User: Fold ADCL4 protein from Steatornis caripensis.
Amino acid sequence: MAVVYTLLVLFLAVFVAGFILLVMGAINFDFSNSEIPPGVNQPVKLRVIHIILISRAVVGKILENIGICSQVSFVRYVQDRKILGADTKLFIKDLWFEKVPVRIYQPKVPSASQRRGVMFFHGGGWVFGSLETHEKLCRSIARESESVVVSVGYRLAPEHKYPAAYEDCLNATIHFMKHTEHYGVDPAHVIVCGDSAGGNLAAAVSQTLAGRSDLPKLRAQILIYPGLQALDFNLPSYQQNRGVPLLFRERAAFYVLQYLYGNALKLEEVLEGSHIPIDIKLNYRKWVSPDNIPEKFKARGYKPHVLLDCTTEVYGTVERFCEPNLCPLLAEDAIIQQLPESFILTCEYDVLRDDGLLYKKRLEDNGVRVTWYHLEDGFHGIIHSLNSDWLSFPAAQRGLDNIV
Assistant:
């Protein structure tokens, strides 16, 4: 019995040691491919957050390899554990809009007039994120702007591929716009808002509703470091910030492929730019081009990328990359001209920075009023850091204040 006990303890010790070595090895590998720019305020905090995210992903991968659960399921489970209690200033209720789960935040303080309504679409690369992960942010927006906020729990990839997330956000928004009176909201003051992938969804929904005559016009769109195109992953910001947490260049392309196809089989072609024929790239170059990025944003070592052609076989598998509901930056001018007043937040150390800058230019060129706020010391996902009191950043609060 003693021998069995000793062997069991030895086995567990070896397993735990091996587990720790695997995690540390993955962290070291990820560190060697990552960079914290000197312009980031409180870089140690960002490194700590990065370590936590890597560790979570590695543990999930190990559990997947031994057959317990998928990596995606594990990460989602951990993300959703932070559940907040009741809010003294808000009524919070879970409902369904057209088979889409939503969470509504309504200020308790009586209002003399109808309130603003905010449809909020969470980020997470269309693969992660939920009503829980953005609970604190939605509460903050509802309280500080005294608005009714509707957070949308859209379907996630890879289980539910494009256009599932877009359709859920669109249907939930239309439902809300048709029933604003139930929530004390002025139908002329409904806003769509989202961060990262949620910003993509907000832009796509806004474009779709721009031509609708049977609904009130959206009052505004708020796009928080949105991803808006998948044609060019070699724009200046993608090169400059390719290894900056919390979103690497490779992961940005990976998430788009997961959303579109449920796999990342053409990742290398997408990264090098050989997934779209040259003639199509040239057609969109008036909108997606480094030439449209202000020179000051190219100072950190940008090198022009050579245009590569693609095979018919490759393009046949990724041709939906050019659909505006996936890449709102590619919408025609006639649609852009109808868009509502817009707020765009970008971060200097974010691969998606130039997506926001290019969209800002497109909107302004088409007569749409744009308020742009740029976090010089910001990185992708910084607003979400407000979820943690001790791992939050001053820039995150500045960003939230401007959003509000």
